[in-house]
Amino acid sequence: MSVTAARGFLAGGVAAGIKESGDRDLALVVNHGPSRAAAGVFTSNRVQAAPVRWSRRVLSDGRITAVVLNSGGANACTGQAGAVDALLMAEHTARVVDTVPHEVAVCSTGLIGVRLPMDRVMAGITACGGALSPEGGEDAAVAIKTTDSVHKSAVVTRAGWTVGGMAKGAGMLAPGLATMLVVLTTDADVSADALDPALRTAVRTTFDRVDSDGCMSTNDTVLLLASGASGTVPDAEEFAEAVHAVCLDLARQLIADAEGASKEIEVTVVGAATEEDAVEVGRSVARNNLLKCALHGEDPNWGRVLSAIGTTSAVFDPDRLDVAINDVWVCRNGAAGESRDKVDLSGRSVTITVDLCSGDSSAVIWTNDLTAEYVHENSAYSS
Amino acid sequence: MSVTAARGFLAGGVAAGIKESGDRDLALVVNHGPSRAAAGVFTSNRVQAAPVRWSRRVLSDGRITAVVLNSGGANACTGQAGAVDALLMAEHTARVVDTVPHEVAVCSTGLIGVRLPMDRVMAGITACGGALSPEGGEDAAVAIKTTDSVHKSAVVTRAGWTVGGMAKGAGMLAPGLATMLVVLTTDADVSADALDPALRTAVRTTFDRVDSDGCMSTNDTVLLLASGASGTVPDAEEFAEAVHAVCLDLARQLIADAEGASKEIEVTVVGAATEEDAVEVGRSVARNNLLKCALHGEDPNWGRVLSAIGTTSAVFDPDRLDVAINDVWVCRNGAAGESRDKVDLSGRSVTITVDLCSGDSSAVIWTNDLTAEYVHENSAYSS
After folding, report:
1. How many CB atoms lie within 10 A of CB B34?
2. ipTM
3. Which amino acids of B are annotated catalytic?
C-alpha cells in the first residue's frame, strides 16, 4: 500500500515512455487533506538537481499538496533549461490535480546530465492524473524504480493512524542520503513544525547511515506528507518512533537490494567518545574497498578494519581496539584475538563490531560488499 | 640498479622462506658513507605497524646505516610481541653489518595481524648480509614485492652525483602514502636537515597524490639515505628536483601496476582557490567507485564527476564547473558540453580535467579504474 496506506492520499504510476524499456516511470502522490503539512530532507551534495532546488523552495511554506516523481532521468546538471523543466512539471501537475505550483514537489532519478523528454513527461502527468486511486501506492512505488530489482514500501499502524512510505535506490548509496527518493505519508494530524524534527531525527539514524558505495547523489529527497484524515493528533514521541520505524524498514530494503551486492553488512561501533566519532569510524570501515572485497570473499580480514579505523580522527588508542566479525572477537587490544577460523561468513548477513574502548557512544552503519557484479552493473551502461 | 646506483651503497635480496612461494622476501640496504644522513616519511594512519614505530625513533637522530626490509608479513597489529620482533630485526641487522641497532631502519609489508616467522627472518638477515653487493639493488627491489607484478626502480644522474630508489606497492594505495615501501639513496653530500625538506616536498606531490583505491596502509615508509660518496655537495634546488623526479617516476610505476587495474587515470584540478581545494576535489573524484566503474566500462560519465565534486568543501559555483575527459569538454557550466561520443576511452591512459573556475591553484591525483579483477584479487585470498 506504501503511500496510500494512510487515509487522505491518492497515488498512481504510469509508463510515460521516459524509460526505453516501456516500464512505469512516472508517479503522482496527492494529499487530499484536510491538512497539507509536510517536511523534507534533501541531499547534502552541493551539486543539486533542478527538482531538488525546486522542492526545497516548495517546502519553505511547510505545505505540499502533490508530489510528481519520475525515473529514467535525474534532471541534474542540466542548467537553466533543467530548472525550467522542473517548474513546468510542477505547473502541469498543479493543473491536473487542481492546486497551485508552489505546493507541488518534484523528484527525478536516473542518468545525470541529460534533459528529460518533456513532451512524454507532460503527457505522462496527464495520464497519471487520470489513474489516481486510493489503492495506487504500489503502482507509484513501481514507477520510481531505476536499477532496483524490487519496489520498496513500508507501513506502520498505530491506534487510529498510520505512517506509510515508498522508496527507490540501489546504487550511489551514501550519506547525505543515499541515491534515493522516499515519500512518506501519514493520516495523523501533525503540523509542519512537528513533522520536520520527527523526519530529521529519523533520517539521521536510518537513511543517512546507509553507505552502500560511498557515492553521494545529486537528487536524494525524503518527503513526509500529513493529511490529518484520521482526525487524530498523535503523541509526539509515538509519532517520531513510527516515522523512524518506517524509515528504518525502507533503509534496510535499500541495502538488501543494493547493486551487485552479495552481503549485507552491519557495522556497529561502540565504546566511542561521541556519536560523531562512532559514525566517522563506522563510515570509514563501511567505505573500505579492500575490506568489502575481503568480506565478499568470506575472509574475516580484521587488519583491514584496523587500517580503516586508523584513518579517522576519532578518539581511540591503537593498542586498545577490539573487533568482532559475526560475533567472534578476532581482534583484541589491537592484535589478533580469537581464531579467524571460527568466523562463518557463508551467510548473506555480516556484522562487524568495533569497540573503541573510549566512551559510551555508539552508531550503526549499513553497507554492502564489493563485487564483480557491482563493477559490471556500473560499467556496462550509463546510469 | 635502484638503490645501488648511487656510490657508497650495498644491497641484497634473498629468499628467507617468509613467503610460502619461495620467492625472495628479505632485503638489506647498507650505507657505507662517509655520510649516513637520512630522512623519512611515514604513513599518517594512526594504526601504525611495529616497524614504522621503530623506524620513526631511528630517524629522530637523522642517521641510518642500514635498512632491513621484508615482504610476506606486515608486522602490524601484532602488539608488544611485534614491537619486540622489529627490535630483534634491527639488532641482528646491526650485528651483521657492524653498526648499532638505533641506526637500522626496519620496513615490513604483507598481511596485517600475524607475527613474522622470526627464525626464518633472522636466518634471512644473516644470509642477506653475506650477499651484499654494489650491484644488489635489483635483488633488493625484487625481494620487497608483494602483489606487485614487476619490481620498481628509478635513477636520476646529475653532474657528479646520483639519486636512485626502489619501491613496492600495488594495493591499499592511498594518501598518507600508498601501501608501499620506498628506499631512495644518493651519493650526494647532503645533511639530514637538508634531506628532510627535499623528501617531504617530493613526497607531498608524488606518492601522497597516488590514490589507487582509497585505502591507507599501516606500513607506508619512504626513506632517503645519503652516503656523500660522490664528494659533491649539490645545489639545494637541483637536488630537490632530482629527488622529486625519482619519486614521480616510482609513483607512476605504482599506479601502472595497481591490482587489477585496466586504466591509469590522471585527475587534474585547475582553477581552484587553493591547492588544498584542488587536492580535495581531485581525491573525491579519484575515490568515486561509480566513476571508476564507468571509466572501466569506457563510459565518459561526467555526471559522476560532478556528484563527486559536490561532496567537497572546495570553493566553486555548481553552475560554473567545467569537466574534460581525454581533453573533450563534456561538461561546461555544470551542464552538458561537447558530445560524449567524441571521447575515446579505448586506451589505457585517461585524463580528467576539472576546472573549478575559482582561482589559480591546481593539483594532480593519480588513480585507477575499478575492475572485477580488483575485486577478485582482494577477495580471493588474504593480503
Report:
1. 11
2. 0.76
3. 179
Closest in A46, A287, A302 to B310, CB measured: A46
Nearest to A310 among B46, B297, B311 (CB): B46
The pTM (predicted TM-score) of the whole model is 0.80
Neighbours of B248 (CB within 10 A): 17
**Cell numbers 591546481 correspond to what residue?**
B362
Q: Cell numbers at residue B379, please? A: 577477495
* B34 prior amide bond cis, ω within 30: yes
Instruction: Report whether A195 contacts A170 (CB < 8 A).
Output: no
| B373 Cα distance to chain centroid | 22
Q: Give yes or no for a contact between A51 and A19, defined as CB atoms under 8 angstroms apart.
A: no
Q: Which residue has the cell 660522490?
A: B230
Which chain A residues are Cβ-neighbours of B215 within 8 angstroms? 288-290, 304, 307-308
CA–CA separation, B299 and B330 (whole Å): 12
In the numeric block, which cell numbers belong to residue B53?
A: 614505530
DSSP state of A326: T
For testing the chain B interface, which of A78, A80, A112, A358 should be mutated: the one with the most B CBs within 10 Å? Answer: A112
Question: Strands, DSSP E only, in chain B?
Answer: 9-14, 26-31, 37-42, 66-70, 104-108, 152-158, 161-168, 181-186, 221-226, 264-272, 322-325, 328-332, 335-336, 349-355, 361-368
Compute the residue count for chain A: 383
Residue A303: closest CA among B17, B378, B86:
B378
Q: Grid cell 518533456 — which residue?
A: A118
Per-residue pLDDT tens digits of chain B, which is 383 residues long: 799 999 999 999 999 999 999 999 999 999 999 999 999 988 878 888 899 999 999 999 999 999 999 999 999 889 999 999 999 999 999 999 999 999 999 999 988 888 999 999 999 999 999 999 999 999 999 999 987 888 989 999 999 999 999 988 764 444 333 357 889 999 999 999 999 999 988 888 888 777 766 666 778 888 999 999 999 999 999 999 999 999 889 888 888 887 788 999 999 999 999 999 999 999 999 988 889 888 998 999 998 899 889 889 999 998 999 999 999 999 999 999 999 999 999 999 999 999 999 999 999 988 888 888 878 877 765 55
| Burial class of A131 by CB neighbour count within 10 A (0 to 12, 13 to 18, 19+) | middle
